[in-house]
Amino acid sequence: MQNDQLDTIVALATPPGRAGVAIVRVSGKLVKKIAKTILKKALYARYAIFSDFLDQSEKTIDQGLAIFFPGPHSFTGEDILELHAHGGSIVINTLIHRILALGARLAKPGEFSERAFLNNKIDLTQAEAIADLIDASSEQAARAAIRSLQGEFSERINALVEALIRLRTYVEAAIDFSEEEINFLADKQITNDLAQITRMLETIQEYAVQGNLLRDGITAVITGLPNAGKSSLLNKLSGKDVAIVTDIPGTTRDLLREHIVIDGMPIHFIDTAGLRESNDVIEQEGIRRAHGEIERADLVLFVVDASCSTTSHLSDFLKNVPKHAVIMTLRNKIDLINEPPSFKQNNRGIEIALSVKNGAGIELLKNHIKMSVGLQTTNEGIFSARRRHIDALARASTFLKNGLHQLDKHQAGELLAEDLRQAQIALSEITGIFTSDDLLGKIFSSFCIGK
Asked: What is the pTM of this model?
């Protein structure tokens, strides 16, 4: 462990501001000394005591509960002291400054969780799951984070790594026997084991993509011609009057952003200015910004007025949409032409007929949004995952495919063994067995202070 991580650290573990109770957390080798000085009472493991919290003159700063968690049986693996005080900024600042004067230092963001990882109390996926649980924007996302925190993601990765190790051992042995003219590389066991590992990896990738969707959500841009009902659609989906709606074309000039959860999936909706030729400088800037958001979108909802517009001009619009994005053409205002809600797939993507005004077709739209981004109807078994996890899984998959190619085409055992080793390293980065200080710094710096 690094020298700065041998220090005793302190931080407010609850949100700052006025509250009934606030928790100050201390971790490190000076915990017992600090507790003895501030409390003047004996501490018992995992037992809450009521005590005065004393300053340097032994005057009372506050009264509250103190709980001692001796290492290694604590969250960080070190001695931990929690002081449950009244949640006023003056009280908390005075208490923390008293602890700093006794030799502690302020904790960096995520440093408690980082110490738990470095002391082998949790692995890297579990540490990240703590932050994901705190930041969860839906019940499903919180449940996925809990599964990762309980080790479900790690268990799947560890099982996959164990299978890779067994296969690597067999391949290395086959290479050794090659000099005796025994071709173990032609053995079907290697091919079968490699195929089984690949299937295991593909399953984990599917769950990871789902978990990442629940965690990060997608960006959906609402665009189209003026007065097609774009702002009305945003209001309908959000359930509140987020955008101003008028009959005047060009009412929306700037970008309007709204975070909406649809059946557990967070979606960042962006309402944009209507796309048209305009001499208005402000509207021109709004249209420029609209094009910029379209170029970064995961989902594009192109809204047209079904009562007076066609989708023939869509081809000009498609050139600005990124290749990975899903495009949905929404034929709004079907109530004006007595048309029922409908869905159809064509060479330009998905087309849905709906009426924002009376709500007809809105549920159809929500269902197809979920389907279009691959969100499963059931989230059972899905764990929280991040983009770095998906990238590592993709690299491991590439190495496995390369290894299978070397085996099938060239019977190249050494190259297969190297691809298996690289796949193992990529997977081990997920749980933190192989990782770099730069990666750890990036991960834990995104945590809140006190966690």
From this structure: 0.72
